[in-house]
Design a protein that fits this description.
It is a single chain. This protein is of the alpha+beta class and 243 residues long. The protein is 47% helix and 17% strand. The protein is built from six helices and twelve strands. The chain has a five-stranded antiparallel β-sheet. Strand 9 and strand 10 form a beta hairpin. The protein is elongated.
Amino acid sequence: MCYVIITIRSLFWTLLSIAIVLGHLVALMTSYWLLGEEEMLLGSSNLYSTDNSTLPVDVLEPSDTYTPTLGIFVRCSQIFRAAEPDASEPVLNPVECTSYINSFMDIPSGFWRALAVFYGAGFFVLVVVALLSVFSLCFQSLCKKSLFTVCGAIQAMAGLLIIISLVLFPAGWGAERVQNLCGTDAAPFELGTCSLGWSFYVAVGATVGTFVTAVLSVQAEIATSSDDIQDEISQGKYIICLP
């Protein structure tokens, strides 16, 4: 028999389980893990090279500044394009945020490739738990075991996988692509001229939230198996809402 049981603690656990999945997704899919030094945004005409030092000065126009960024899969940088043959004015080169990898091996560091594996595994587990947390409103057991405690244990394991991936992130700062952004002083656990961006902090915050949800799963189990819930069931109610 399916009983819809909603308590404040179980509902909060469900909502937080979904929220941390969204947090990890935002962190993975944005480029603001590393922030480079502020650079001048340039406009150009008939521009075929990204090396500004080799270009005639008269084809470059200072316009504005921007901050190049680098993420695990995405980067934001100024894209240089040639002007159209019939263009009478220089073409402004926009800053675009796009994926810079075409395959798994394009990830710039072996440490970052390991990061992608551990983070991806942890993220997949958290997505499954988030789906189960929604079903927990109707089904409170899984294979005769409490769905909440099972999900809580799985969330803790996912959190450990993601912690490993976050440790691997600074280990990959010696990669050539990172040095192109942060200078030749960049090395494992040495940022060079770069700084950490908000995507990294979102990942850290979502990881802390992952362990919080693992703890809250115990409280959700207690709330949905209380004597008050059993009294409501004995009265023949199928939809139960209690504080």
